[in-house]
Structures are given as structure tokens and as C-alpha cells.
Amino acid sequence: MFNIVPQPNELIITGGKARFVLDEDTTISKLPFIDEFRRFVRKQFDLHIHRDSQATENTIRLELTDDADSDEGYRLVSRDGCIYIYARAENGLFYGLQTLKQLLLQGNGVVPDLYIDDKPRFRYRGFMLDSGRYFQPVEEIKRLIDLMALHKLNRFHWHLTEDQGWRIQIDKYPLLTEIGSRRSHTNFGLRPEGGFYTKDDVREIVDYCHRRFMEVVPEFDVPGHCVAAIACYPELSCFSRKLKVATHWGVKHDILCAGKESTYRFVFDVLDELFALFPDKWMHLGGDEAVKMRWKLCEHCQDVIRTKGLKDENELQQYFMSRVARYVYEHGFTPIMWNYDGVDSADMLDRRIVWQMCGANEENGLVQKELAAGRRMINASAFPYYLDFPYGWVDLQRAYEYEPGISENILGVEAPLWTEYVPDRKTADKRIFPRLAAVAEAAWSAPEDRSFARFEEGLPEYFDLLNVYHVHYATLKQAMPGKLRGKAQSLWFNRRVLHWQGLHNLIDDARVEAAHKNDCSRSR
């Protein structure tokens, strides 16, 4: 029996006497997206398969048909010594080839007569890469995109702006990359770190995704997580403070000023340049961890609260996000934001904003309330989908068995990789794999087809597949550490994330408040 990741909806060994044998005479239909599959065969089997759409023997035939009920679904049939993949659209054919890779690898180039009927559960199946905290070279991003495609994921969420780094070229604001793309040191080794993506880099990555039937979701995080931008243009903050690009992880209290029109002009200018680079019509606006200490003291923010009849700073953030989201929507894009943290109402928040669930406000019922009211959501719940968490926090079984939800307003699932404690490729691989396979099955496979026992049994074959791509994955023992080893992992991780950010914020808040009082006294 074959072990395919993600698990197909239906796989039947039909028992025919014929079988498909991959050899030097094998051909494949001529289609634009087959070259990556041909490279896989050449690398793994040392065979060069030729393009031939007319061959009838020992061929891999890809055919578009009208009888499928999903653009991403496919049927794969092995019979009469040939492989036939049928789909309604080319992305379905592409996913069929991803399944065929695993069949060939597990069968050592031989596939018995069989029938597979397969389609995804969710239309949004994502992976998020945080390039804001650590810059990854273009080639490394391409490697991760290839691995996403192998798991039949179709949304690359690219987190491009952070307190610790601004990573994308914006022509109207050159200091964002001249200054904002570099920090003096990091949590690891106290070494400088930086880099940014030119517009040509971005176009290259977008094209690379499109050739793998993947859409790109850029994230421009506002109003929080903007210290790198404020370090370049201090007037974006409430008090025009001179800051440095943040060096360590932690929630910062300096955020964009929601009361200045110049802030909105900056945000809209940046969005205009992003619209031109990302054609897939998604725009993630962040919206998380926006600490409102500065807004409480800011005359500009307080003036907006008064003139707009807002209740408090939480409603001011809803006003800010809704205004930015309307601009996004007016330009034909779908706005996304992380679901609200620390509030019990989102009544003023534009209903067209898609929420990305990260675990906030589930206990107080706000997520359920918004789903019932029709807000669309993407499930990226921190427990279990945050890939940077150690397996001692979220082991493989917990990640696999989590049910992302059955509401028709849940568009799909996404696994984010936050990178402040993931400084290199080897660490990233161990955190991502095999956990990404568990998320991929939640995104693709029908709930009734999912079984952790079956999934665990198939991990040796899955690891063989990852070996082809030179992935430094976590072993089953590492991914299922047990109570004692899991506790040790948790203690280690907690020690790494301990920092002085909380104390720094207390001292910094006191400075800002004292300066504000002095300004108020002088103004009298």
C-alpha cells in the first residue's frame, strides 16, 4: 500500500496484471509545468523522460476534462502500462504529478494498476514565511516554495515588514531599505543582520509561485510592528521619536500614529507600489499586537476619537484598519488581518476584511460571533499551526489531530513560520517538517480520511521523499518528544525568549509620559 501526503480522498489498487514502469523510453505530455517533474525523475532515477503528447505506450498522459467538480482536483489512473492524469484545470494536473512523484519513489519507478480520485477540502492552503525578522535569500525562498508545492499548498503568505526589518523596495520611501532593512545585532551571536528584496526579486518570486499554481499574499503590517519604518521616518509615530531598527523580538509600544493624515498617505503610497507587484489580489495588513500606549497620550489620535465619535483606542484601531482596508478593497484587492487581540467587539471593523485566526479571542467568543455574522476567516491558530514553536509545545500528533473547523466561512488553513528564533535553514527545516505535512493533510484531506496512526505509519516513506530535497527534518522521536523531553524543550525555548523587552517598555513608557506632561505644562 502507498502512503501519500496529503492523503488522497480515494486510492484503489485495481489488481490488473499490467503495471507502469518508468524507464528510458517513458514520455510525458507537453505542458508548460512538467519540467520540475522531469528534473525530479532525472535526479532520483537518472532518467531523461521526453515530451510527447501523442505517445500511447509507456507514457504519462495529462488530459484536461470537463467531468471533474474542482479545478484543483484530479484523477490518476495506472492501466495498460501508462499513467493517465485527468483534471478540469492545469493546477489539478500539477497536483496529480505531485502524487505521482510519491508513487514512483515508493515503488522504485514501478506503479501497479490503480485508481486515485482526489480533491482538496479547502481552497486556501497556506504557509507563511517571516522575512521581516530574518532575511532569506531568493534561492532559499524558492526551495521552500518547491516544498510547499510538493504538499499541494497554494498560498505563499510573505511577511515583509517588521520591527526588526523592512524587506521590500519602495521607491517613494528609499530610507525604508537604506536604513530599515538592517539591524545592528540579533538574538543569536549579537551579529548584524539585514537585506531586502528588490522589485525584480519580488517579480521573480511571484512568477516562481505562479508556475507552481500558487498565489502570493504579501503582508504590510500596520499599525504595529512598524519600528523599522519609524526608525527611517520618525514623523510616522505619535511623537516623532528617533528610534533604531529593533534588535530583539518582543511587542513594541511605538506604532504608527492613527491621528495624522500623513500616516495614511504613507500607508497608501506603500500600498500603491505593492499593488503593482502582487497581482493575486490579496493584501495582508497585519493589525496584530498594536499596543495603544502612545495613542492614549497623542493629541492627534485623541482628536480623531473625539471627532469620529469613537469610544476608545480599540475603536480607533478599528477605524484605522477599516480605512486602510477600504483603500485596499477599492483597488480590487481582498484585505486580510490577524484577528483582534485584547478586544471583545469588532462591530466597527469592515466586514470585508478576512480574519486570520491566530488563537486570540477564541475564549471570549468573538471569533465564533464574527464567523456567525459572516466574516470569512483563515485558520492559523498558534496552537497548533505556528511552526516555530518547539515540538515540546506542539508535538506532531497535536498538530495533526487539530480540527480547523467546519464553518463555510473558514476559507482554509495556514501554517506560519515566525523566524526570530529560526535564524538558519537547518533550524527552519526541523521546525517545519514533518509538521507541515500534518497541516497539509488538514488542508487537503477529508476529515474522515485522516488518521494519525496511518500518518505515523507512513512517515518513513515521507522522510524518503524529503531526503530527495535534502531537507533537515525532525525525526519522529524529535517530533514526538514525550513529556520529559517535551518539558526540556519548552524550558529551553522559554529561556531563549526571555528578554528585557517588558522592562524596556516600562522605562520607555515612563519617559514618554514624562515628556508628554512637560509638553502639556509648557503649552499652558
Which helices and strands appear, and what pairs or packs with what?
Elements: E1 10-13, E2 19-21, E3 27-28, H1 35-45, E4 50-51, E5 59-64, E6 74-79, E7 82-87, H2 90-106, E8 110-112, E9 114-118, E10 124-130, H3 138-150, E11 155-159, H4 175-178, E12 182-183, E13 193-194, H5 199-210, E14 215-222, H6 227-232, H7 261-277, E15 282-286, H8 293-297, H9 299-307, H10 313-330, E16 334-338, E17 354-357, H11 366-372, E18 377-379, H12 382-385, H13 396-401, E19 410-417, H14 425-432, H15 435-444, H16 452-457, H17 459-468, H18 476-479, H19 482-497, H20 501-523
Parallel strand pairs: 3-4, 3-5, 5-7, 10-11, 10-19, 11-14, 14-15, 15-16, 16-17, 17-18, 18-19
Antiparallel strand pairs: 1-9, 2-8, 6-7, 6-9, 12-13
Helix pairs in contact: 1-2, 3-5
Question: Averaged pLDDT, please?
Answer: 94
Provide the CATH superfamily of the largest domain. Answer: Glycosidases
Biggest sheet overview = 8 strands, parallel, barrel
Decide which structural class fits the backbone: alpha/beta
DSSP, total strands: 19
Ends distance: 82 Å
Unreliable parts: none
How many H/I helical runs?
20
Q: Rough shape?
A: elongated
- Indicate the CATH topology of the largest domain: TIM Barrel
Gyration radius from CA atoms, angstroms = 25 Å
Spatial sequence of strands, sheet with the most strands:
10-11-14-15-16-17-18-19
The CATH class assignment of the largest domain is Alpha Beta
Helix percentage: 25-40%
CATH architecture of the largest domain: Alpha-Beta Barrel
Strand content: 15-25%
- Summed up, the domain count is 2
